[in-house]
Specification:
four-stranded mixed sheet; 9 helices; 6% strand; globular
Length: 217
């Protein structure tokens, strides 16, 4: 057994982020799936692990619980520093965190499963409403993200920041994987699409992809 245990769901974009980071770092882990659409993350056994009832949750060898994907990824980067997921210079680190948080803090929270479920149960939203909602908030985030990365040729390289993938690329690839289920058109975002293609050519991103997990449907 591995010293790391990852509680996650194959289609969760936040889980995908952590899986990418683990693969990039070459860290082995035990995969524990929780089917979100079946409510398995709200069962007492999992709430005893993570009282928030969300995925991902990473359990360290000493039993320490880590939740929240960005916190987990930065922990992994600090404890297994190669390859680095953040630049060495303060301005570069701030830029990568900015790009990552534009996705992880502005787009994802309003489009995650519990919000979409609440739109259905509280406001009677149908499938078309949900799709339009999801696309709206992705576009609200991707429009400025595209402009920022396209206009900063000296900072944006093959990836979001330079020529090596990092935290921002992890968040971007995971978001685009979710976008595909809702038919989000990437045509208006050529820089984003180019970077995502570069990410998906890498073994770590491929191995961590939702369709390649043991609980994939």
């Amino acid at each position: 057994m591995s010293e790391l245990v990852l509680h996650n769901y194959y289609r969760s974009s936040t889980s995908y982020r952590v899986r990418i980071a683990l693969e990039m770092k070459g860290l082995s882990y035990d995969y524990v799936p929780h089917h979100l659409r079946h409510g398995e993350h709200l069962e007492p056994a999992y709430l005893a692990v993570n009282p928030q009832g969300l995925v991902p949750a990473l359990i360290l060898g000493d039993g320490t619980l880590l939740t929240q994907s960005l916190a987990i990824i930065e922990f992994l980067d600090e404890t297994s520093p190669e390859p680095p997921l953040l630049p060495k210079d303060p301005a570069g680190r701030a830029r990568v965190r900015m790009l990552a948080q534009m996705i992880a803090c502005d787009i994802h929270p309003v489009n995650n499963l519990r919000v979409l479920t609440s739109l259905r149960t509280l406001f009677g939203a149908g499938d078309e409403d949900i799709t339009n909602w999801f696309r709206h908030w992705v576009n609200e985030g991707f429009q400025p993200l595209e402009k920022i990365m396209a206009s900063a040729a000296a900072e944006t390289g093959t990836f979001c920041h330079g020529d090596a993938p990092g935290l921002a690329d992890i968040c971007l690839a995971a978001q685009i994987a979710s976008n595909a289920r809702f038919g989000v058109d990437l045509t208006p975002y050529p820089t984003i699409a180019r970077i995502n293609a570069a990410c998906m050519a890498l073994p770590a991103f491929q191995k961590a992809a939702p369709q390649n997990q043991i609980d994939a449907e």
